[in-house]
Design goal:
By secondary structure, this protein is mainly beta. Helix content is 6%, strand content 26%. It has a domain of 176 residues: Sandwich (Immunoglobulin-like).
Length: 289
Amino acid sequence: MTTDSSNHRRYELRIVQQPTIGSAFHENLFSRIGLAPPLIVELKVLSDDNAEVEAFDELPFLLCQCSLVDESGRSADMVIPPTPSAPASAENRPTGPVSAPAASTSRRGRTSASGVRRRASRNSGSGTITATADANKTPGRSTPSSASSTTPTSATPAGVAPSLPDTPPTLTDASPNRLVRMLYGTIVASPQPFESPEGDVRPFFFFPEISIRAPGRFKLQCSLIRLSLPGLPSFGESAPDSGPLATAETETFEVVERQTYVAPYITEVSRHFARQGVPLLLPPGATAD
């Protein structure tokens, strides 16, 4: 909670609903599963005497941003992805000459199998099959010889599945070019007035689709910030880098691998807001009633 001395308003963020489980998506960006149940945060604006203020004139300039932290509170927004195995080096690839299979050719430039048989019959006494081919006339059309052909092998690097650590490194552990985001989806929301479960209209922030890349135990940290753009009405004289107006943090939840993930039941809070038109991405076949 922070007090804005210029307009005598205090701001609070209250966690109405918080996630309990998530499914790690690793590199599968297009098949992400959002944290469940979805995060819902309520905004409260209070006066100096703790009376609640209807700050609808200020709502268009307020945003709530989510960031990811681990159990100890350390930032987990960025991690280092695993390095895939390098392709086979030139030293490991076959470098020796590969003997080309031999065959005889006809006048039209095609391989003649009968010519090979005739030559083989003439040389049957010595047990040797002799075949000749003009490589300039018959490219790519040859009959392999079981006695002299050699098949090269190519080294194909196997794909490495991403396995990020449970405790992500900090930004100082690697170059920014190697870092990837842990948090994807709806991580910034604007306040929207809806009827609360208690029956009164209040501003809420909805985060229906937050996904996390790697498994582990995490918390979401919510920060209330105010837009500071030229020409916008001023609701405070605080500097843009003075910090958030208010913060809130969820309890610790677990992100598991997809094959062990079991979605929880839809909560009554989710149904309450879904009935009012909030897009909370209910499972297929589920209704808000």
